[in-house]
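REQUEST ID: PR-0412
SUBMITTED BY: lab tech R.K.
PRIORITY: routine
TASK: structure prediction, single protein chain
INPUT:
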Amino acid sequence: MTFRLSNEEYGLPILKVKELVALAAITRVPGAAEFMRGVINLRGRILPVLDLREKFGMGQIAQTKHTVVIVVEHVLDGRRRSIGIMVDEALEVIRVDPASIEALPDAGPKAFQSDLILGVAKVRDRVVFLLDIDLALAREGSPSALNELPPPG
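STATUS: complete
OUTPUT:
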């Protein structure tokens, strides 16, 4: 499944996606990290919602008619959890040919280093960053999460 954050397109495995939810009233949780928008009541179940763009240090999502919450199932500390990720826009479900996936190019030290990106898919005339959603949601902190890597070796 592909979605947009700012002007960039990301993809995650469709088996991680449980559903798409129209943006509803989010209740802020006191003391939560800035990227944690809060919680929503999803059919009687409390679901945490985070702003994925803010978690990646790209600024807060400005809510539009396209803003959506993607409910994903991820693994943290060996437990399956559901969480809502707020994105600028859900795009489409696509099939990615494994032959069209490349690693991030080597443009020098720390240019694009990111362990959150499993690869870059070339889909028609677009570039789609394939996101490791389990790692992205497990990682603490927010600014420049896409550029933080442990030192090599």
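NOTES: The first strand starts at residue 2 and ends at 5.
REVIEWED BY: pending
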